[in-house]
Amino acid sequence: MGSDRSPHKFPKFANVEDERRHRKQRLAAAFRIFGAFGFDEGTAGHITARDPELTDHFWVNPLGMNFKHIRVKDLLLVNHEGEVVEGDWPLNKAAFVIHSQIHAARPEVVAAAHSHSVHGKAWSTLRRPLDPLTQDACAFYGDHAVFDDYTGAVFEIEEGKRIADALGDRKAAILANHGILTVGRSVDEAAWWFVTLERTCQVQLLAEAAGSPVLIDPDQAEKTAAQVGGSGTGWFQAQPLFDWILGEQPGLLDE
Ligand SMILES: [Zn+2]
Questions:
Q1: DSSP class of 255
Q2: Other Cβ atoms closer than 10 A to 145
Q3: pLDDT tens per residue, range 68-110
Q4: Cα(227) to centroid of ligand 1, in Å?
Q5: How far does the centroid of ligand 1 lie from the alpha carbon of residue 71, in Å?
């Protein structure tokens, strides 16, 4: 989680209120990052953060609010029944059915991210796992799933369950003909895996369009995965993006 001299330290909290505030701040910041990267498509896309006290509740974006406008005070708190218990805007039904099942199946997962980003969506039509083509791609080596059972927009709890089952204990899933999804032990980590998964899809699309890319051999891919694919590394990799967005757009912290 950074060297002793790094200004970036994984945060520790004296109480649950401070932890909740931090999670909400990172969640609002993650939406601004997704907005800046163009990961939105109309009203699609959601990132959730589990509440640190009410652990079967999560914080999520209001349906229809531009990612670039989201502030801490706009976030919705949703219970395990899919009811909005804090916030005024409507909830994206798909956000509830997918994310509630992932948060329930993976108690260590604090955050999950999904959107219809272009390269993830394009790659998802191939219904194949990504190859270890680059050092960055190795973060997903043996650690992402392909959910290849597309049956329309996700509005049923049953389908959310099937996505959570396909994800298993991995950090990411490619949802066929739909988009990509990532999880993490922090909002920062889930957001980082999303950013780098989207770019990994882009790189493989580019490389295959240009020729016949050479894969990193399995032993090296496995070794590299251990070096670049850990939860703490994912958190640390996200810090420059969060520093940038919080510096540029401090208004996102309004609560
Ligand atoms: Zn979707």
A1: -
A2: 19
A3: 999 999 999 999 999 999 999 999 999 999 999 999 999 999 9
A4: 30
A5: 22
